[in-house]
Amino acid sequence: MLCLLVGITMAAAGQTTLREQNQLLFEQLQQVHGLTDEQMRDIRAIFAHSSVLGQGNPAISQHPVTALQCAAKLEKTGISYDNAQFEQICGHKYMAPLYDPKTASAEQAKACIDQFEFPDIPCVYPVVWVKAREAAQICAAEGKRLCDAHEWEGACAGSLQPPDYRFDLAHDQEPESAIHRMRLAHNAAHQADQSWGYGREYQRGVCATGSFKTAGCPGGGWQLCGSNTYPTGDFPACRSPLNVYDLNGNAAEHMNLPLNAQQMASLGSKDLGYTEMKGSWFIFDTYRAHEDWCRWRAPFWHGTRVMDAQSHANYHLGFRCCETVEPRKPALLRK
């Protein structure tokens, strides 16, 4: 695995265009995740419709750590993110089961989540400049789906709880007002049990939050704002109790916020709800822009329907995927 990453990283050293950068990304996706040619055609087509979708503007992005340095560090410390048990449960590499350890086992999980930000490969920069619609389409091309907000929150807090969306508060035609009421109720309900992916207390330096913003970046813009992210998995301690990484730090992440049960991706809906952005990003150690505890829900930032063709994209905004799975019986019960 590390040899593959090192080889591709070395080959990428002289690449300077987004097209070349994405070509290397496609090669990694197919080799690591075993995607079919048909799946890759669908993913390539999604990327082809965007002039910015990728790992950031290669002309101005300044990553604090290279993919090669990340791979070397993991190899030196003997850290491996491979997990045969998780692969058996989830059916994919680098996915983790979502469940509540107090009431269930990993084998009883009904859903899994990517352990890393897309492309869900350790020591690879996250894909950014992605619209929520594109994120949902890419997940679908992989045979997965976009996560519902409560799934990401459960992955971060270490226990997947039943959905607690206050649909009773979404009783008007204005989604921003409905989401505001739902958000206030949800955040108040979880105020006393704040936690971060790595523990109960906020800490600096544990996750990929020590980067910097490009000089002159006004808050957005392909030509002005570099995606100065870290390789995923470069901070092994930035791990939730369910073994999901980089939930705090690095790229923020798109997911689905439903206003009724018919918009829940976890229930099989294709008519998704509204955009929610989770997680902090790569300069939180110097500029803590907002709250970022696991079950905190953000204001209606750049809000649209997930599948809106004009859903938001930016230099520090990425995603990860979830998947619904058939629960497997615990090993002792299979005998």
Overall description:
The protein is of the alpha+beta class and 335 residues long. The chain has one domain. It has helices at 2-12, 18-33, 37-48, 67-77, 84-90, 132-141, 149-157, 175-190, 331-334, and strands at 95-98, 111-114, 145-146, 252-257, 274-278, 317-319, 321-324. The strands form 2 sheets. The protein has a 4-stranded antiparallel β-sheet with strand order 1-2-7-3, sandwiched between helices. A 3-stranded mixed β-sheet has the order 5-4-6, with no helix packed on it. The longest helix is centred in the first third of the chain and has 16 residues, at 18-33. The chain is globular. Mean pLDDT is 93; it is low at 6-14 and 331-335.
**Overall form:** globular
Secondary-structure-based class equals: alpha+beta
Mean pLDDT: 93
Tally of alpha and pi helices: 9
Instruction: Give the termini distance in whole angstroms.
Output: 33 Å
Biggest sheet architecture: 4 strands, antiparallel
The spatial strand order of the largest sheet comes to 1-2-7-3
Number of domains: 1
Low-confidence segments: 6-14, 331-335
Rounded to an integer in angstroms, the radius of gyration calculated over CA atoms is 19 Å
User: What is the total tally of β strands?
Assistant: 7
DSSP helix fraction? 25-40%
Strand composition percent: 5-15%
Q: What series of H and E elements makes up the topology? A: HHHHHEEHEHHEEEEH
Topology at a glance:
Layout: H1 2-12, H2 18-33, H3 37-48, H4 67-77, H5 84-90, E1 95-98, E2 111-114, H6 132-141, E3 145-146, H7 149-157, H8 175-190, E4 252-257, E5 274-278, E6 317-319, E7 321-324, H9 331-334
Parallel strand pairs: 4-6
Antiparallel strand pairs: 1-2, 2-7, 3-7, 4-5
Helix pairs in contact: 1-2, 1-4, 2-3, 3-6
